[in-house]
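Thread title: Can someone regenerate the structure for this chain?

I was given the following input by a collaborator and told the matching structure tokens would be attached. They weren't. Posting the sequence so someone can regenerate them.
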Amino acid sequence: MTKRAIIIDDERLARAELKKLLQDHPEIEIIAEAANANEGIEKIEHMDPDLIFLDIQMPGKTGFDLLTELDRLPQVIFTTAYDEYALKAFEVNALDYLLKPVEPKRLADALHKLEYIEEKEALTSSPGLQGVNRGVLGENDQVFVKDGERCWFVKLNEIRLFESVGNYAKVFFSTHKPLILKSLNALEERLDEKVFFRANRKHIVNLRMIERVEPYFNGGLLLEIKGGEKIEVSRRQAVKFKEMMSL
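Best answer:
Regenerated them for you:
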């Protein structure tokens, strides 16, 4: 399946070289380029790519700054001339970290990781949240959640929160917090938006489980969930939340 990608790098020659290397990978379609973080954020939000190739050191905001401003996070492959950011790159769940000049084999390895993750997610058996995308689920639907040797059948209306953990999602219900091999973006496609709200790039909350809403930093909101969790709603999503919840 073709993956739509954006290259974000302030060096024009670096963008051109990466595009040339990607000609050997027809499964990757370059849909846009950006020369700085602000331009990158705008194109990501408007074009919703599956993958971004992201430089770290750029004029103004860094690649890490860019990631903190996104509500939905595509897969990320860092491309940089500096090796000292590798640990931080994996802390933000980057798919891979390629040093410039990018070697063809390292690029191929990174793209194989993307392919492997998607195949594993698609092949994860069981109905419900673990299965292949079969359309939107209702809040009264019962879904199967498996984490290691433990299994649960749980109604969606009993799930108060989903939290992104890399390529997994943590499911909060009762006293349990199992992990499932499903990205937050994939989950969002299956959940009823009238019930489940994307608060930020790491959390989807059950609107029925919100106990308190408070103003928060920089125009955002802070939601207190029935389990005691406190979830920040990004400024951009706060506007949408207020529109949804107002009379």
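Residues 124-128 have pLDDT under 50 and may be disordered.
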